Amino acid sequence: MNETRALFVGRFNPFHLGHLQVVQKILKNEDELIIAIGSTQQSHTLTDPFTAGERVLMIRECLKEANISLEKVFILTIPDIFRNSVWVSHLQSYCPPFNSVYTNSSLIRQLFMDAGITVKSAGLFDRKHLKGSYIRQLMLKGEEWQLLVPLAVFNVIKSINGVQRLQNIVQGTD
Amino acid sequence: MNETRALFVGRFNPFHLGHLQVVQKILKNEDELIIAIGSTQQSHTLTDPFTAGERVLMIRECLKEANISLEKVFILTIPDIFRNSVWVSHLQSYCPPFNSVYTNSSLIRQLFMDAGITVKSAGLFDRKHLKGSYIRQLMLKGEEWQLLVPLAVFNVIKSINGVQRLQNIVQGTD
Amino acid sequence: MNETRALFVGRFNPFHLGHLQVVQKILKNEDELIIAIGSTQQSHTLTDPFTAGERVLMIRECLKEANISLEKVFILTIPDIFRNSVWVSHLQSYCPPFNSVYTNSSLIRQLFMDAGITVKSAGLFDRKHLKGSYIRQLMLKGEEWQLLVPLAVFNVIKSINGVQRLQNIVQGTD
Amino acid sequence: MNETRALFVGRFNPFHLGHLQVVQKILKNEDELIIAIGSTQQSHTLTDPFTAGERVLMIRECLKEANISLEKVFILTIPDIFRNSVWVSHLQSYCPPFNSVYTNSSLIRQLFMDAGITVKSAGLFDRKHLKGSYIRQLMLKGEEWQLLVPLAVFNVIKSINGVQRLQNIVQGTD
Amino acid sequence: MNETRALFVGRFNPFHLGHLQVVQKILKNEDELIIAIGSTQQSHTLTDPFTAGERVLMIRECLKEANISLEKVFILTIPDIFRNSVWVSHLQSYCPPFNSVYTNSSLIRQLFMDAGITVKSAGLFDRKHLKGSYIRQLMLKGEEWQLLVPLAVFNVIKSINGVQRLQNIVQGTD
Amino acid sequence: MNETRALFVGRFNPFHLGHLQVVQKILKNEDELIIAIGSTQQSHTLTDPFTAGERVLMIRECLKEANISLEKVFILTIPDIFRNSVWVSHLQSYCPPFNSVYTNSSLIRQLFMDAGITVKSAGLFDRKHLKGSYIRQLMLKGEEWQLLVPLAVFNVIKSINGVQRLQNIVQGTD
Lengths: 174, 174, 174, 174, 174, 174
Description:
Chain A is an alpha/beta fold. Chain A has seven helices and five strands, in the order βαβαβαβαβααα. Chain A has helices at residues 17-29, 52-65, 84-94, 106-114, 132-141, 151-159, 162-169; strands at residues 5-10, 32-38, 73-78, 100-103, 118-121. A five-stranded parallel β-sheet of chain A has the order 3-2-1-4-5, sandwiched between helices. The longest helix of chain A has 14 residues, at 52-65.
């Protein structure tokens, strides 16, 4: 593998402008990129309101909109395995080989470094507003969130009535 | 299926007077009712102190006490599947066919509506006191809870020393 | 518990005349009976073609047809746990208390006896023809199987187009 | 969704010329295609020797080689769920919406038809030789299999020393 | 079994001086002791930072240091089963037979008593400081924790850079 | 780690004289040995009749009988994970660090070599008779098997009535 292939991991609920910035930055340095969507067995929860398929569609439509060639990007889904000690092997089995990992998470950094894999910083962007949990809070409160995601993502969420879904999920236990 | 068959879902920890009111109300409108007990793999926890078998027994004894014919009611147990996107299919596989669903939960309403199944409101009752979490709190504190459940349910809980069990469950982690 | 309550375990794919004979025989000796349907997470396979809900319906309709009161019989569903060493505890958690177990299976007999629970023989009937695997073979070959099951069971299987389903399941891997 | 999007399901161990013919045929009739790789939690077994990531890479390289635009094809991975009754919902949650399914499997046909989804025949090709199990047998025996797969697939298998891996997997139990 | 064999259950993240006191006390009364390490599928989390293997090594090195013969002690690992109703059977299947259980946990006491097994108090020690959660808090804050664990445990944690690992685990979601 | 620590993996149903020879041979070359018992969630089946705890006891009693110090040997239990691609990481998380692996299995050899870990041959012994499957066949048929296992193992199997258990397990489905 003379070409470089990098990995970028997230749950992408939803894929937002910060994620897009990271993708664009990585593609300046690397030949190919794997966008690995985690927790794909989850949906219809407060932290993971969207299905794996919906998240794939959001990212794909966003890449097309941003004129990023799908020849250079893998969009893959990684179900949770609930075992940190095997998570790197698990993720590797779902991906083609890669040379480096971009992440801002210290846990993911730790797990990959323990496995002897190069970890690079995903770089800085506006982490206060460009953050999944913040965007979901805005959706729940019925406030403005649209400008924090690419237009293509907004369109997917609108087509599935995603804000209404998230609001319906808010409920206590019995 | 010319006759109507409705579904009523809950965890029933324990089955209380509010649940009984719902059952009685539904049976005025429908020929048959499925009472689907959820989270049946759980027991001996703060939210699910009772086993599936104990919950079946509570409901059955209560129906007998209330002169509701067991010919009209299915009491079925549904283990959790931890995947909201397949939960409706999962529940359907454990039940005979049904025409409508009664629930007050907006998440369950959402999931069934996504699957194209009619959802009706389970109706109003005193949700402040007739609520599983409230009754379990009273049990934990050693306060009066008996009047919030049918007598038959009280007798089952007493026979298994259920209040003591719940109090023993309260403990921190390591 | 002064009254006796017995357990009868099977997969019931489908519930046949041999099963019905056992139920009738047990109810001569015991006050109540739990019919525990196993492997209820399975369906659409060669050994378990029917869903849990379909099996519940077969048994219930059959009991009504045979004038066996549902006040005396629990019909419960037990998902597999794939751990023989905990299977008895697992099954007990899904059932109300019982005094004895009827089975012809030497493995189930072993597991219950290890747990100190009384095991009785389910008695003899025509095990060559009244056997789930034999009836499913007849269905697959398009031969006569109807006389081996109660009429109510036949009607349920017909209503779900069960023979066609079983034939569709027959297929090799990749 | 005015455009059509079809689904094609398989395990693709490995992706062979028959699969490629099906993909090319479907893309004549449909705007977009989802290639859904099943059993992706498996690898290093006789029926599933390749990892999910390796299978993704095989298919992707093959599409590039065949000049099929990645703008028109989703390559997605679907772990097994071991519950036929929820399999369609499970698969749907991992995919963007689709209008039709192409398959030659009668079980998959049955499951989708039960869910009310249009199923089309994947069409005929040389099923004696263009079959995963046959190709894996050739690999095991050290016979010629290369001409049954696209060149790009051959190159991926060679790069991972796949034939040797398969031969190492052959072993009895304890 | 004329000799007595006792059970002591914990997660041991990490094994501390309070645990060692319990072990020494039990071995004054019993011929053999099983130290059963729970939640062994977990690692790299705030409550379970260490792997099963690391916890085994900590305990074993500590016993050697304290001149406790390994001929008298079993060190066994018990993965979680997430089903309280079968937990005792699950644990028993991973252990040789034992006569009694030492614990300070009221839930574990309840579960064993329900199974008819003798439960003894693990005795008192300084539960404010000799507590896993307290020691992990000290590690997170970079404060002194070393004196709360046996020297052998400290050496194992140092060799795996355990404090740094725990600090890396602290991170929010998405 | 200046000292060497080797790994020896098996299911040990039961631990036989061939296994003992391997252990003795390894301990001539290595400072410490981990005996890793696999498939420990299984019991009461034809391939895994004994529980994890019974297998631990067999091996431990056998080591004592053979005057092998328990200071040099770890006896650890490894539940199946049903994912070959993560199995090495899974096993590593249950063990202290080790330098080399002894096995006669080509699959295990493949998996460890893929992970960059040294694999050595476990050496030759009488694989026709000293083989778990052969010994279990003798038990099933009621023939002589005692001379193929260490006396300590025979005593454990006798104490649990293991041959009778195995014979009871033999039964068809439904």
